[in-house]
Amino acid sequence: KQEVTQIPAALSVPEGENLVLNCSFTDSAIYNLQWFRQDPGKGLTSLLLIQSSQREQTSGRLNASLDKSSGRSTLYIAASQPGDSATYLCAVDSGYALNFGKGTSLLVTP
Amino acid sequence: GAGVSQSPRYKVAKRGQDVALRCDPISGHVSLFWYQQALGQGPEFLTYFQNEAQLDKSGLPSDRFFAERPEGSVSTLKIQRTQQEDSAVYLCASSFGSGRPPGELFFGEGSRLTVL
Q: How far is Cα A10 from Cα A17, in angstroms, rounded to an integer?
């Protein structure tokens, strides 16, 4: 079974810092990898989707990279803002059911 | 609709009661998924529909869990004889695609079930 691990589990940074969230997965036979954001008591919002043939995707201040052979992905957030505070989930698609990590809880302090 | 809609948003049930959770996917979306998210955990796959066909129910934790999508749009997740370990947020997601993988998923806000 695909296992997805996210490090760190929690992160607190001052506003303005650039930061990196890490995701690793055990089975490199994936179709795509998605990063989601989850606010407390809310559902999941898709941030970036990287196809298995791609190396990275960018959206605004977010950049996600994928190294399928080593089973790793990173989410880079530039110039963090308090509004970025949320839980960030990495999910790997090995068929049609997503396998999620436990998430990284991010707090950006003013 | 504009997004995936789930109801009720919050449900408190006494142990042993039956509950039904509803999901209205985005209009025209073929694929529909149910996930269970325990506190502090990532979502776990429960079941998958392609139109009205339930193609995978391997994630359902027991035979007390049942899901249907009779007309290929609205779906209902039913939990019979609820137990405390069923307490979780139940997330519904839909996608326009029907292949493997079905493409980008859009999630609802979830139904939070608390079993006392």
A: 15
Report yes or no: B49 at the A interface, CB cutoff 8 Å: no
Contact (Cβ atoms closer than 8 angstroms) between residue B82 and residue B89: no
- Residue B100 is encoded by which pair of tokens? 């493997």
Copy the structure tokens of residue A63.
């950049």
Tokens at B52, concatenated: 């009205």
Q: How many CB atoms lie within 10 A of CB B22?
A: 15
Q: How many C-beta neighbours within 10 Å does residue A95 have? A: 16
Check if the beta carbon of residue B23 is closer than 8 Å to that of residue B4.
Answer: yes
Comparing alpha-carbon positions, the chain A residue that sits nearest to B58 is: A97
Tell me the per-residue pLDDT of B2-60, one tens digit each, with 9 for 90 and over. Answer: 799 999 999 999 999 999 999 999 999 999 999 999 998 999 999 999 999 999 999 99
- A contact residues 61-100, partner B, Cβ 8 Å cutoff: 89, 91, 93, 95-100
